[in-house]
Prior knowledge:
Keywords: Acyltransferase, Transferase. The protein is α+β, with helices and mostly antiparallel strands. The chain is about 30% helix and about 35% strand. It has two domains: about 1-120 and about 265-275, Aminopeptidase, CATH 3.40.630; about 135-260, 3-Layer(aba) Sandwich (Aminopeptidase). The chain has eight helices and twelve strands. Strands 1-2-3-4-5-12-6-11-10-9-8-7 form a twelve-stranded mixed sheet, sandwiched between helices. The two termini are about 20 Å apart. The model has no long low-confidence stretch (mean pLDDT about 95).
Amino acid sequence: xxxxxxxxDIPAMAGFLAGHMERSMFLLGNLQAHGLANTDHPHxxxxxxxxxxxxIAGIFAITNGGYLMVQHPGLRADxxxxxxxxxxxxxxxxxxxxxxxxxQIVEALGFAPEAWEIDRPxxxxxxxxxxxxxxxxxxxxxxxxDLDLLTGWFAAYGEETGTGNDPQALEDRARSSRNSDRLRLxxxxxxxxxxxxxxxxxxxAVQVGGVYVPPELRGQGRAGRVVAxxxxxxxxxxxxxxxxxxxxxxxxxxxxxxxxxxxxxYRVSMLRAPAxxxxxx
Length: 281
């Protein structure tokens, strides 16, 4: 049986998602940050449960911003269609998650292949921060003077990865990233040369994202150094585990050099434009 989650479900939901932490970071992070009743923040979400007897078998959610998330081990096509029925008429923008599960949801949505800007698996990595290497790197948070730099770098990152280039969204992201431990800049000779960010936190785990090095500065280990420097700061603040998905073989190599180990695949599927779910009668 599928039903919408309610507040009394939160402890069981958190326990279920924690058991699949590396593939549930957005689900659990958004739940911990926004609960079940937030209808304003883009990351607030409506959650649905599937139960098998007295235990949770799967969780599915749609954020206020239109992004889908799923954690349902062994998800089959018929169950994926059941999840999609819960959001009939809702506007969606994309889905990320465990490769096999997210692929089932993509197929159940029924959008034409050309509707997708991105629909691909990316290697998923994990690192216990006890194993984080100590690298020599000068880094700092972004400040007020970095707004234009961040906006430009986020635009370039979005263009390269196909994850978004809305000017207002880019500026808003840049503004919210200043004076925050969610973003870190690598500094050489007094100037920023690379950045890294945190997509979400869940418990003592963090998900790394938004790693960017300008093209002319690549190939010299800066991506790995900026990520390691950021994780060192976060470890001092209580983080114990980091996960990420790598968008290229070069990125994967950079992360492997600082100790990340591949644990599977993570699917990133983004529509070219928001689309409304239409479930056949």
